[in-house]
Amino acid sequence: MIRTSFAVGLLALATALPAVAQVTTSPLQQADAQPSVSSQSGRQTGVVTMDRDDGRQVIVRSYEPRSAQADQYRVDFAALDVDGDGYISRVEAKAHPALDAEFNAIDSNRDGRLSREELAGWLR
Predict the structure, then answer these.
(1) 90 and 63, same structural domain?
(2) Which helix (H) or strand (E) holds 102?
(3) Residue 36 carries which DSSP code?
(4) pLDDT tens digits for 20-60?
(5) Which single residue of 6, 29, 98, 103 could bond 72 by disulfide (Cβ 3.0 to 4.6 Å)?
(6) pTM to 2 decimals?
């Protein structure tokens, strides 16, 4: 009687539990061609792999932009710091088109002015 009760109990337990999903993985598909909008002419500066809720992986790679090697990113801090306060204000940055366009991204502490340290991070 105990064996029969045990077997019936196991059967009842097995049917009450939800089915365990089998997890399988497959290798990521490799793209033969690089994206047409890629700026991969510079060196790779980072890579991040993220797992999505649907089980897919997203790989994000960052590269030095082509324009980082151009003269438009050369900055003479002293020349732009017209008032000599040690910072480049939004008004002073307007004299440098690339710096003006990217001012908000460079101003990491959001104080409305760029320090030499913030600018060095942008030029790295």
Answers:
(1) no
(2) none
(3) T
(4) 445 555 555 555 555 555 545 567 778 888 888 999 998 88
(5) 98
(6) 0.44
